[in-house]
Amino acid sequence: xxxxxxxxxxxxxxxxxxxxxxxxxxxxxxxxxxxxxxxxxxxxxxxxxxxxxxxxxxxxxxxxxxxxxxxxxxxxxxxxxxxxxxxxxxxxxxxxxxxxxxxxxxxxxxxxxxxxxxxxxxxxxxxxxxxxxxxxxxxxx
Length: 141
Known about the structure:
It is built from five helices and six strands. The strands form two sheets. A three-stranded antiparallel β-sheet has the order 1-3-2. β2 and β3 form a beta hairpin. The radius of gyration is 17 Å and the shape is globular.
């Protein structure tokens, strides 16, 4: 059985470098397209989408679909940090501005453990989002 070799293209390297420069930031494909276009990079939209999916398959970036009203977002997975560890990734979405916040919190982890131990329910963190107001929006109301 032969395994397919992973290969890298200049476009894929440009995408990866952009994500590395924005650790912990959730970016939509549209965000990436707009940034690279503004930087003058000559990468087509279809190439960006294809390479995003390839980077997800490679385990270099994570893909999150927060809800049906929001586009999928992508986040760099640093090999030195927990961001790719499913057990520690929590997401919050601001109901006012739509900002997505990455949270690593022992209290929320304890809640997850409580659900499993007391209720026999394992929370799917890739599909769980806490909704509320971010600091900026809550202070302006």
